[in-house]
Each structure stands twice: as structure tokens, then as C-alpha cells.
Design a protein that fits this description.
Length: 163
Amino acid sequence: MTPAEKSTGKERPTASPLAAREPVPAGCAAARTLCLRLERDPQAPSLARAAVRDFSAESALPPVDGATLALLVSELVSNAVLHSDAPPRSGIALRARVLGERAVRVEVIDSGSGFAPEPRDPARAIGGFGLFLVDSQAARWGVDREGGTRVWFELRGVERASA
């Protein structure tokens, strides 16, 4: 099995040493919910993107932009890998769930001590774009300390044309 364990509401996540150390986000057994447990390593963003693509196809996700969803997930997981002050082997939890008919909420949780989001410094030539992208593309987003450091966003779908 890969470093990730997935639950789409149809199957329960299996226990692993990583899952035993980290809290699993509430609601992971609910229908139209993805829960993913990742190790904090360079493969985590790629595994998260693939899982979100599968989740989108399996759960009749609202008509959100799949590329934007994958980009924002990748940015948040990358931030947890690169910037968290959590112990290196503490892992990352990813949760995505469908909200009604036209939105999806994604949460990335690590056991770090948290941070206060700051606006991107335009004088900075490299980096600092992750939360800028989340802010510009998500309908809502935030950072809190629920279960560790939790960064979340909601992405709204587009209106479907009537036939």
C-alpha cells in the first residue's frame, strides 16, 4: 500500500502507525467524503492530487473546476510538507467533502503549531504564491487550530446550463 490511505465513504481507512499517531478528521466515514493520510514527504502533493481526481470522479462532485481543485489541494499539502513545524514523521490529513449541490470543502491538517496568514510580498521573487492562489480562487478559506493546524477552503461550482 502507498503512504496514503484513502476512504471515500464506501470503505473505512485501515489503521497504520501513522494513523495511530494522528487524529483522523471527524466525518471521514460519511458519503461523498474523502479522507487521506499522507506522510510529510515530497510525494504527498502528487498523492493528494491523484486522490482528489479519483474522489471527484467517484462522488459526483459539483461542477467545480477540477484543475483549480487539484491546484489548491497541491498548494496546501505542499505548504504542510515544506513549512509545518510539526515533527517530520507526524503526517498530514486531507479531508474533502461535498457541500450540497454546488461546492466542495477541503481541509489539510498537520500537527504543527499554526501560523497567521500574511499577504504575499510582491517584492519576493520566489515563493509565497500558495495562499495567494487559495485566496484568489476559493469562495472562502481560513486557518484554525482544530485538530492541529488546519487550513481549509471551499470551492463553489458553476451554474449548469438548462437544456
